[in-house]
Amino acid sequence: MRNHKDLIVWQKSMALVKELYRITQSFPKEELYGITSQIRRAAVSIPSNIAEGYGRGHEKELIQFLYIALGSASELETQLIICKDIGYVSETVFNELNDLNVEIIKMLSALINKRYYHPC
Fold this sequence. Notes:
mainly alpha, 78% helix, 0% strand
């Protein structure tokens, strides 16, 4: 692997960011500094921390940043549930977004476990 952009988890998290930006454009304007901002921040944090971890060049730091990305994905999961519960997204949209986020969470967990137990 040449860099973080080669990682499928980074690519999927970038796709999630783009989709969330598109969807949150339809949220009420009064939420711009509320749930809209929170969702966007958490989503952007996922690929950003993957990239930063790979850019650091040290295995321990990489694992630390992967854990931060994992935390952001978990935070995002809660925010998506809130959006579904208050009616900002439909059940169908929630399921699509949540399924992708859960896939990212699983991929990050696997990457952390691989790195933690088998550092390259």
